[in-house]
Amino acid sequence: MKFIGRVLLALALLAGCSVGAAAAGQGSPVQRHRLRIGWGDMLFETAVYYPTVQHVFDTPSAIPDYFRTKEDFSHWFTGHIFAEYQYSVLDFLSVGGQIDFESMGWKSGWFDNNHVMVEALPDVRFSNVVVMPTVRLSYLRKEPVSVYSGLGAGLLLSFAQTVEAAPAVYINLVGVQLGSGHWSGSLDLGAMASMSDFSKVYLMGSRLVSVSINYSW
């Protein structure tokens, strides 16, 4: 729980800095509400879950007929699909919440010495859902460009054979929003992580790059 405590402390410090900066004389934005839908990479997941090296032998007849090897193949990944709502409390400070969804899976089977699948295993599939409050600090907010950073801390639910829960955090190191009026687009650079302990890591260095379409009012 120290991990969550440190993140919440960082969120509080970020909010405090934002209030101080806004008090320096910036006006309130006309459009206080922001809803965005986006997609992020699954670099961590694709690095951890990958196809097994195929056991294709030049002379399969030299391998015993009883040879069997398990292989994973046909991997697929949805990427991080997320939605976020934020409310601009001050020019520099926005608070809100985000929900992030990802899913992945693959096929498995037992292969013989001729690399013929002799037994298909059940498909593997699991999903992660992250729900977290978020805070955004804007450094530059002048149409059509906005530059910002943000933090989020919450809970990850992993759905496979069982449902497991773990703390999760998202750090948005820098983001750029382009657009004017109600519609805009964003590019975020950051990272999402989630673990229950060092032996149970769900996410680490995932969602390094995110893009989104935003609607403000």
Keywords:
mainly beta; disordered N terminus; elongated; 217 residues
The helical percent reads 10-25%
Strand content is over 45%
| Helix-strand sequence | HEHEEEEEEEEE
Q: Count the strands?
A: 10
Within the largest sheet, what's the order of strands?
1-3-4-5-6-7-8-10
**Mean pLDDT across every amino acid position:** 88
The gyration radius over C-alpha positions equals 22 Å
- How would you sum up the major sheet? 8 strands, antiparallel, barrel
- C-alpha end-to-end distance: 37 Å
Overall geometry comes to elongated
Q: Can I get a quick summary?
A:
With 217 residues, this protein is mainly beta. The chain has helices at 2-22, 43-48, and strands at residues 33-40, 69-77, 80-88, 93-111, 117-142, 145-159, 163-178, 183-197, 200-206, 209-216. It has an 8-stranded antiparallel beta barrel.
Give a verbal description of the structure:
The protein has 2 helices and 10 strands. The chain is mainly beta. The chain has an 8-stranded antiparallel beta barrel. The longest helix is centred in the first third of the chain and has 21 residues, at about 1-20. Mean pLDDT is about 90; it is low at about 1-30.
List the topology elements.
Blueprint: H1 2-22, E1 33-40, H2 43-48, E2 69-77, E3 80-88, E4 93-111, E5 117-142, E6 145-159, E7 163-178, E8 183-197, E9 200-206, E10 209-216
